[in-house]
Amino acid sequence: MPLARESEIGTLGAVAPVGLPLNSKYERLIARAKEAAAANTIVVHPCDETSLRGATEAAELGLINPILVGPAAKINTVAREYKLDIAKYEIVNVAHSDAAAARAVELIHEGRGELLMKGSLHTDELMRAVTASKTGLRTARRVSHVFIMDVPTHSETLFVTDAAINIFPDLDAKVDIVQNAIDLFTQLGLGTPRVAILSAVETVTAKIPSTIDAAALCKMADRGQITGGVLDGPLAFDNAIDPEAARIKGIKSPVAGRAQILVVPDLEAGNMLAKNLIYLSKADSAGLVLGARVPIVLTSRADSVRSRMASCAAAVLYAVARRSAVTVPAA
């Protein structure tokens, strides 16, 4: 199953809503992460202002202990130009972005970090090193991305998956996509998630293959092949998140109208959904890549400060939960 390149999906972390209350979803997430022990974080090629500032701001909040991997001269030049104090952070000097990605993966294997954070290199450069069959950070799980959406007009935090990595996932890939999202939700301490498997309609029909996948995923959850969440599907977007829409359609389930995780049929649908939430509903979007040996924070130059900090906070809380848990077995 192919992975999406950054240039193919565009940037999703744009447009921070104005005037958000201090008790909004992200502030609560960040506050909880600040109470945990900071996570050792390998920051890959932080060679522009946005990525280096994001790492230093997360460190100043007490979320992470960064190790900066990249050309030392370039990192120091950026720090001087933008008056960022990085004197107390370790810099691992390598020649270029490809070398930074490779060395970052090595540092994870050496036990130096619990998280990876993307800097100013392309996403596909980093993911190529992460998914390398012999030297990467693969596990038995499919790698997938989860957006954590703070929608000002919606009471629930919404997880959207996968809108950034898997282009046309088959049923086996969707099993891992769903399980990764459930694990993140539960390990963030949010309880048992209500998971909607989205399609264009809420009835199973051979004419729309995603409805058949949805039905299969729900039955797999019934049989214990997917654990930790309550699944329903296929559901259309309206009757997944709006109780009145579910009532009108006569859909009765614990999930319909109250979904917390939205599993999209493919990357195109997820990309459009996420961008609609960001640009029309003024949502913030944090997110992580899961399924590797460590969570990976993918930040964008367009991300708001709150989005970047929320992504770090989610990764830290996920890492804290994993410290005392059984890790995903290596492939």
Classify the fold: give the CATH topology.
Isopropylmalate Dehydrogenase
Q: Nearest-angstrom radius of gyration?
A: 19 Å
| Poorly predicted sequence stretches spanning 5 or more consecutive residues | 6-23, 326-331
Element-level helix/strand string: HHEHEHEHEHEEHEHEHHEHEEH
Largest sheet: spatial strand order: 3-2-1-4-11-10-5-6-9-7-8
Examine the secondary-structure arrangement and name the CATH architecture: 3-Layer(aba) Sandwich
The gross shape turns out to be globular
Biggest sheet statistics: 11 strands, mixed
Tally of contiguous helical segments: 12
* Count of the domains: 1
| Beta strand % | 15-25%
Write the layout of secondary structure elements.
Blueprint: H1 6-9, H2 25-34, E1 39-44, H3 49-60, E2 64-70, H4 72-81, E3 90-93, H5 97-109, E4 115-118, H6 123-130, E5 144-150, E6 158-161, H7 171-187, E7 194-198, H8 209-222, E8 230-235, H9 237-241, H10 243-248, E9 261-263, H11 267-279, E10 284-290, E11 296-297, H12 305-323
Would you write up a description of this structure?
With 331 residues, the protein is of the alpha/beta class. It has one domain: 3-Layer(aba) Sandwich (Isopropylmalate Dehydrogenase), CATH 3.40.718. Helix content is 40%, strand content 17%. The chain has helices spanning 6-9, 25-34, 49-60, 72-81, 97-109, 123-130, 171-187, 209-222, 237-241, 243-248, 267-279, 305-323, and strands at residues 39-44, 64-70, 90-93, 115-118, 144-150, 158-161, 194-198, 230-235, 261-263, 284-290, 296-297. It has an 11-stranded mixed sheet, with helices on both faces. α8 (209-222) links the parallel β7 and β8. The chain is globular. The chain starts with 5 loop residues before the first helix and ends in an 8-residue tail after the last helix.
